[in-house]
Design brief:
The structure holds 2 protein chains of 2 kinds. Helices cover about 45% and strands about 15% of the residues of chain A. Chain A has 8 helices and 5 strands. Chain A has a 3-stranded antiparallel β-sheet. Chain A has a two-stranded antiparallel sheet with strand order 1-2. Helices cover about 55% and strands about 5% of the residues of chain B. In chain B, a hairpin with a 6-residue loop joins β2 and β3. In chain B, α2 packs antiparallel against α3 and α7 packs across α9.
């Protein structure tokens, strides 16, 4: 399959996908003989073109996939047309619990509660409803407690490429905003929905 | 008070301790246990005086703090051999606080990312309609509110205050209705303004409980303009917060 055609197909897929397009999904369309590395290369090329030509839409890598997004600068214009917005922002307890799960996964409810010092049931339920956390298994200890982990929707909500995109915990100091993408010691297993 | 506010406190004793640390500009590693313990207990008293339900974890922490405090007052030689071998509870607490604080910072970073994501529009993942019900964003914590309230009250809240109801001139229900009206009429209401209008301590308490209830019902949001700055109250709508 020639590259020009593949790029056109990718553009079409990017438009209609309802979640970030995964490379495996693209391969299902383009053909299993296509090398995933080539798919990634083409997507990166498309992304570069949008940026170089200063287009109003860009291609972003997020949640282990790729998607079209509007240039953030254009948000005021977009908002004039549509009230359709992403889900409302999360509270501190939800964010803190999510942070604990994201960095420590897989983790049990008790372990989460030991960090925050307060019951986690309500927050876990909310995060589950929002599909930010999921059950990833059970810990092989007494009682076989449930283990939690984050989802792709979690990555999507925060604009993270993948779990390695999380700022390293050691880097975090009061008031400073981490700018480096340093791999940390979280699990590198691919997420599922 | 016939109207009992059941506050779902998502924030726990560690949040309160970190709040105190921040408020007094302390370093966690050098935390003055005696001072912190006294302040912590004062907060519990305030919450009890307001008839708020206090989760068991708060009381467990109170006991832990008092144990640490009394242990620090004893000369080291008086520790039994077993006690001397156990991990230092003060150090354990410090480690817990340091760890929790790291995750609080991580949460703030996530919050910033979430905000950046808001201006990236794409094809809708879900059919058009109302966003899923999510907890609204509350910037000021329960303890910020309690601090502001106790500062405003200028002194200790007499414990008997709540139980001495002679006339229900100011009821929590009445204040709830008033607050609803106020926040509908105006974009924001200042916390201080609400309370300077109060003629008696009873009225102030009723107003405060009404505030807590409306927060619980997610009808209003409280924000702080700067660190320990003025607290403002706004009505919740469906729109994205413009902060």
């Amino acid at each position: 399959m020639d590259e020009m055609n593949a790029k056109r197909i990718l553009e079409a897929l990017l438009l209609v996908t309802d979640k970030p397009l995964l490379i495996e999904q693209a391969r299902e369309v383009l053909g299993a003989d296509v090398d995933p590395a080539d798919v990634r290369r083409l997507l990166n090329k498309l992304a570069q073109q949008c940026a170089q030509e200063n287009r109003g839409i860009r291609i972003q890598e997020v949640a282990e996939g790729f998607e079209y997004i509007t240039d953030p600068e254009l948000a005021p214009y977009v908002l004039k047309l549509t009230r359709r917005v992403r889900s409302v922002r999360l509270t501190k307890p939800s964010l803190e619990t999510l942070a604990i799960i994201a960095y420590r996964q897989p983790i049990t409810r008790l372990e989460i509660e030991q960090v925050r010092g307060v019951d986690a049931g309500g927050v876990l339920e909310t995060l589950g409803k929002l599909n930010m956390v999921r059950i990833v298994g059970r810990k092989e200890t007494v009682g076989r407690p449930i283990l939690y982990g984050t989802t792709r929707d979690f990555l999507d909500h925060f604009g993270l490429k993948n779990l390695e995109d999380l700022p390293s915990l050691e880097e975090l100091k009061a008031g400073s905003v981490p700018t480096l993408e340093i791999p940390n010691d979280t699990q590198t297993a691919p997420q599922t929905d | 008070m016939s109207y009992k506010v059941k506050l779902e406190i998502f924030e726990g004793p560690l949040d309160l301790l970190l709040h105190l640390v921040k408020q007094d500009h302390l370093e966690i590693v050098n935390i003055p246990i005696a001072q912190i313990t006294d302040q912590y207990l004062k907060y519990l008293e305030l919450m009890q005086a307001l008839d708020l339900e206090i989760a068991g974890e708060f009381l467990v922490m109170a006991a832990t703090l008092m144990q640490i405090k009394s242990r620090q007052l004893l000369p080291p030689e008086t520790l039994t051999p077993e006690e001397a071998e156990e991990p230092d509870p003060a150090q354990e607490l410090i480690q817990r606080l340091l760890e929790y604080q790291k995750f609080k910072q991580a949460a703030e970073v996530l919050s910033g990312m979430e905000k950046d994501r808001l201006v990236q529009f794409s094809r809708p993942a879900r059919p058009d309609g109302t966003p899923e019900e999510v907890e609204e964003f509350v910037e000021a914590s329960l303890f910020d509110l309690l601090t502001a309230f106790s500062q405003f009250m200028q002194g200790e809240l007499p414990r008997e205050l709540i139980h001495e109801i002679v006339k229900d001139e100011f009821t929590v229900e009445g204040k709830i209705a008033l607050l609803r009206q106020l926040t509908q009429q105006r974009e924001r209401v200042n916390f201080a303004e609400l309370f300077t209008k109060a003629k008696t301590k009873m009225e102030a308490v009723a107003t405060f409980l009404a505030l807590l209830e409306l927060i619980r019902l997610k009808e209003i949001t409280i924000r702080q303009s700067q660190l320990f700055g003025e607290i403002v109250i706004t009505r919740n709508t469906d729109e994205i917060p413009s902060s």
